[in-house]
Amino acid sequence: MSRQMTGAEMVVQALRDQGVDTIFGYPGGAVLPIYDAIFQQNDIRHILVRHEQAAVHMAEGYARSTGKPGCVLVTSGPGATNAVTGLTDALLDSIPLVVFSGQVPTFMIGTDGFQEADTVGITRPCTKHNWLVKDTDKLAEVIHQGFHVATSGRPGPVLIDIPKDVQFATGTYTGPKTARVDHYQPKLKGDIDAITKLVELMETAERPVFYTGGGVINSGPAACQLMCEMIDATGFPVTSTLMGLGAYPASGKNWLGMLGMHGLYEANLAMHGCDLMINLGARFDDRITGRVADFSPNSTKVHVDIDASSINKVVTVNLPIIGDIGHVLEDALRIWKSRGRKVNKAGLAKWWAQIQEWQAVNCLAYTNSDTVIKPQYALQRLQALTEGRDRYITTEVGQHQMWAAQFLGFEAPNRWMTSGGLGTMGYGFPASIGVQVAHPDALVINVAGEASWLMNMQEMGTATQFRTPVKQFILNNERLGMVRQWQQLLHGERYSHSWSESLPDFVKLAESFGWKGIRCSDPAELDAKIIEMLEYDGPVLFDCLVEKHENCFPMIPSGKPHNEMLLAADAEAFASGATLV
Amino acid sequence: MAALNIKKGSTSHSAYDLRDFHSDVESSHTLAVLVDNEAGVLARVIGLFSGRGYNIDSLTVAEVDHKGHRSRITIVTRGTMAVIDQIKAQLGRIVPVHEVHDLTLEGQSVERELALFKVAAIGEKRVESLRLADIFRANVVDSTLESFVFEITGTPEKIDAFAELMRPLGLIDVARTGVAALSRGV
Ligand SMILES: Cc1ncc(C[n+]2csc(CCOP(=O)(O)OP(=O)(O)O)c2C)c(N)n1
Ligand SMILES: [Mg+2]
Questions:
Q1: What is the enclosing helix (H) or strand (E) of A391?
Q2: Ligand 1 atom at minimum distance from A476 CA
Q3: A147 annotated active-site
Q4: How far is the CA of A56 from the centre of ligand 2 (A)?
């Protein structure tokens, strides 16, 4: 099917043909023709943001909560440069996005024209791929290729830069089926000999552990289900990275909790002491491994990943399997079952006994208070009061993010959206709007720190305008808490610029945008106020005033091995004696 | 495929490949990268090397299939085996990259470089430079009364050797293309 239309109309038509229902964006001179085309149709909803960075985070929230690519439209120059943080965030967390930017007309490129920036040059290292389209006849095909690249293999953001004259000109539109995508076809099936070897290792392992990551969630709900089946059938313990939470339910009997720098004691010690590590779609990030030389010294390591460059990048593994998690697990399960569903029962029983000893340490224990709200307590109450509801959680970056990962339980994939790889303060609020746009009737809560939240607070207007009843649950410690914690533990308690001065009155701020504002500082009132937030039909800014000096434990100081984790009780001793490099 | 033989508890061997990944011996590898000749493709490849801190000793690029718009990039790089494997995997995931070949590992290959040398000399040195050029099979492609431009092709080592000998005779300028390489046989 080919038709004549303008480049601007092609953008809208291609979005339609790709099944897109929503685009997040902000207009400007170089995208006016596309905005004109958007004005003249009703299939694609445009969400007008207040800053382009937020548009990209919204699209990320949309993508992560639906499994579909998120779409963004920004103007040239400052519109495009504002999108860079979001693109980098999506690249590091492997989130599929298709971002359209306007560009000065082709004849002006290179002249430092008004609002000209070398957008493909700037975004080359922060996209999976990008294109500058100079010919209207090629535009449709590039857009369809863009969707293909963003969503196949290891997903990621792509950017399509469209000069204004290309938007105005008329050309031939071609549909998705005719787009050439043949050469970019990442391999999905894993090597069957290697998968058989994995099964053999599983049959004999005495101390196995599944170490799962965001790749499982990206592989899709079916892959998550296969993984749960495998874990439950083998009885192996499972831990996950920050990115992978929800793929295996937190209420599942083999769940050890999150691992890593602020992961659970039992999860990290299981990683350290295992004899078989099965990495599914995780990437041995430094927040996970600690000191690489001491990382899980006695294990045989298996790594399943769709991206060959993740294999042996940080940790050398014994058995790499390149392929899609879902496909590989399907084969592995079939082979394991056909060989008689064997596991090393005696070994496993001993291993679980050991793990239970670690669990008994109760590493998340904290001293509660009846005068001041402890952040952990606030999250425990939030968890208790939302239990059983299909709830979507986003976070900002800092202590509150780690506490949320520790204290909230995720029962299904695509319910947990946090900036993992880039650690972008300001991610959570716009992401929560993106999630709410995709799931208008769902409960969407952003667990925030006051400092992060301020970084994209302008999006309050967006939430009001588009009637997204997002709940902003701010654990307000009046500190850049995570920075303060490191300064306390690692920089001699010199608190250089780590407190939040001149904070707004969050309740008044909420009201000024037509939101509901709630403030709570008394633990006794917390439940009633959380319920008030949950029951309110509209956006809520919840200013939860918490203990200002609480630290997040367990903690593996960077550069330390897993078995040198700090628990709350050790922290004092550590602060007074240890030195770090 | 050969039987996979993993020693329990060992961490130093890959099941697939028994090369020693932990070795920190660096070696030089010649990579041939076949890419779509589209705008920005070279920037992607170079950006990968600079962004991730890899070395480039030499780089050549030209379209080799005008109809299919394919270019061949030949990169000479250095690193431990682990780094070289990373470089190849990272190159392989650039979208317009079709093939990555490690000519150093994939059997025998031939490598050639072309260089132009300007030698300013008169008298005995001028005669000597011509004699040496003859030995190295370099051609004179420009001549004035006080200078020659020689053209030489060969391995980078041969060109280095020629440069060493020409330097005392009045070598004043060198232009080198970088390495082009192909595997031997079919
Ligand atoms: C854009 C950005 N700038 C700086 C940082 C470094 N950083 C990490 S956590 C943090 C403090 C966050 O404070 P807040 O949002 O109040 O969360 P808390 O740790 O207090 O829970 C900072 C500054 C970052 N992650 N992102
Ligand atoms: Mg704070």
A1: strand A391-395
A2: 16
A3: no
A4: 24
Residues 34-53 of B with CB under 8 A from A: 36, 39-40, 43-44, 47, 51
CB-based contact A300 B6, cutoff 8 Å: yes
Per-residue pLDDT in tens (0 to 9) along chain A, 581 residues: 579 999 999 999 999 999 999 999 999 999 999 999 999 999 999 999 999 999 999 999 999 999 999 999 999 999 999 999 999 999 999 999 999 999 999 999 999 999 999 999 999 999 999 999 999 999 999 999 999 999 999 999 999 999 999 999 999 999 999 988 878 999 999 999 999 999 999 999 999 999 999 999 999 999 999 999 999 999 999 999 999 999 999 999 999 999 999 999 999 999 999 999 999 999 999 999 989 999 999 999 999 999 999 999 999 999 999 999 999 999 999 999 999 999 999 999 999 999 999 999 999 999 999 999 999 999 999 999 999 999 999 999 999 999 999 999 999 999 999 999 999 999 999 999 999 999 999 999 999 999 999 999 999 999 999 999 999 999 999 999 999 999 999 999 999 999 999 999 999 999 999 999 999 999 999 999 999 999 999 999 999 999 999 999 999 988 888 888 889 877 655 555 544 43
Q: State which H helix or E strand residue A238 sits in.
A: strand A238-240
How many A from CA of A173 to the centre of ligand 1? 46
Q: What is the distance between the alpha carbons of residues B40 and B43, in angstroms, rounded to a whole number?
A: 5
Q: Are domains B27-102 and B109-183 of this chain identical in fold?
A: yes
Tokens of A499: 């407190």
**Residue pointed to by tokens 């929800």:** A246
- CA B131 remoteness from chain centre: 28
Q: Which two tokens stand for residue A274?
A: 């295992």
Give the tokens for residue A435: 């999630």
Burial category of A167 from C-beta neighbours within 10 Å (exposed 0-12, middle 13-18, buried 19 and up):
buried
Residues with Cβ within 8 Å of A419's Cβ and at least 6 positions away in sequence, in order, are A89, A93, A395, A397, A427, A428
Phi-psi region of A19 (alpha: psi -120 to 50; beta: other; left: phi over 0): left
Question: What are the structural domain ranges in chain B?
Answer: 27-102, 109-183
Q: Hey, is the C-beta of B2 within 8 angstroms of any chain A C-beta?
A: no
Q: Which CATH superfamily is domain B109-183 in?
A: ACT-like. Chain A, domain 2 (3.30.70.1150)
The answer to whether residue A164 is catalytic is: yes
Q: What is the ipTM, given to two decimal places?
A: 0.91
Of ligand 1's listed atoms, the one at least distance from the Cα of A422 is 25
Domain B27-102 matching CATH 3.30.70.260: the answer reads yes
Cβ count within 10 A of residue A517: 19
* Chain A residues close to B14, C-beta within 8 Å: 312, 316-320
Whole-angstrom Cα distance, residue A305 to residue A342? Answer: 25
